[in-house]
Amino acid sequence: MGSGGGGGVVDGAKPAVAMVAVEFVFSALQIFIKLALDDGMDVRVLVAYRLMFASAFLCPLAFLIERKKRPPLTMKVVLGLFLCGLFGIAINQNLLVLAMKLTNSTTIVTALSNLTPQSTFIVAILTRQESVKLGKASGRAKLAGTLVGLGGAMVVTFYRGPELAFMHRLARVAGLRHGGRGLDARGTTAAASPAARVVGSFLAITSCFSFAVWLSIQARVGEAFPCHYSIAALVCLSGAAQSALLALCFHRDTAHWRLGLDVRLYSSAYAGIVASGFAFPLMSWCLRVRGPLYVAMFGPLIIVFVAVLSSVFLDETLHLGIPLGAVLIVAGLYMVLWGQAREAQEKAAGVLPQDEEQGEESTAPADAANGETK
C-alpha cells in the first residue's frame, strides 16, 4: 500500500519535473544563441540552421509515429502549415534572435517573450474571436493582466535603473567568464545603445504578436489535421525553407554558411535537436496530462534561469529595470491565466449564454506561455 502511494506521488511529480526540465532546456537555448551571435554568426543563418536541424530530427520521427493515422494533406491544410511556418517560425524566430542581437541581452528578450498570452488576447479581440466581457470578473482580469503586462514591457524597454552587482559576483565565484565577442574593456558584456535597446525590445514584443497570429492559425490546422508530430515537422520544414530563402537573399557566400566544430554548430544543433526535438514533445505530453494552464504556470521560470545563466556564463549586466518589468509581466500573465480559468469554469457551469461562447482559441494563450521564444 505504501509502495502504491509512493508510486502515485512519483507519477504526480513527473509533469512538474518535466516542465522544469523544459524551461531549463529553453533557458540554455538562449545562452547558446547569444554565444553564436557573439561569435559573429548571422541572425538569419542561425535561424535557418536551427530549423534545418529541427526538420531533420522531427520529420523521420513524425513519419514513424503517425504513419498509420495521418490523414491526407489538403490544399487548405498545406496553406495553413505554410502560414504557421511563416508567422510562428520564420518571422517569430528571426525577430527574437535579431532582438537579442540589438539589445545584447538574453534576459530582456526572455522577459518580453512572456507577453505572448497578452498578445494572443489582443489578437483574439482584433479578429473578433473573443470579446471583452467587462461585466464579468474573468473579462476584467484578462484586460487588467494585459495592461499590466504591457506596462511591464515598457519598464523593461525604457528603464534601466542601477546595476544589480550581486549577479556579477556569481560569475566571479564560479570562475566563469564569457570569452567571446561583445565584451567591453572591463571584460563584461558591452551594453547596447539606448536606441538599439528600444528597437530590439519592440522587435521582441512584435514577435509575440507574430506568435499569437500563429496560434490562431494553428488551432484551425489542428482541427483539420490532428497529428501533432506531423504538424510540428511540417511547420519546421516550411519555416526552414522560408528562413533559408531569406538568409540566401542576404548571404550567398559560403563563409556565412560554413559550420565547423565550434559554437555555431553546437548552437544550431542544440536549438534544432534538443530544444525542438526533445523539449516540444515533452511539453506536449504535459499539455495532454495536465492541460495548458498547468504548462503556462511554469513559463516565468525561464526568466529566473536565463538571468542566472547569462550572469554566470555570459557575465551579462543585470539592471533593476529588468526584474521590475519582469515582475509586472509575470503578474499580468497570471492575471490573464486566472481570467481564462475563471471563464472556463463559467462556461462549464453554463453561466455564459451560448452566443457569447466565441473563439475556441481563447484558451490558446496558455499554450503559448513558453512562446518559442524559446
TrEMBL record:
TM region positions: 12-33, 45-65, 77-100, 139-159, 198-217, 229-248, 268-287, 294-314, 320-338
PANTHER family, alphabetized: WAT1-RELATED PROTEIN
Gene Ontology molecular function terms on file: transmembrane transporter activity
Biological source species: Panicum hallii var. hallii
Occurrences of domain EamA (ranges): 17-156, 200-337
Membrane-protein topology: Multi-pass membrane protein
Entry-linked Pfam families: EamA
Family: Belongs to the drug/metabolite transporter (DMT) superfamily. Plant drug/metabolite exporter (P-DME) (TC 2.A.7.4) family.
Compartments where found: Membrane
This protein's UniProt keywords: Membrane, Transmembrane, Transmembrane helix
One GO CC term on file: membrane
Highest taxon listed in the record's lineage: Eukaryota
The protein's name: WAT1-related protein
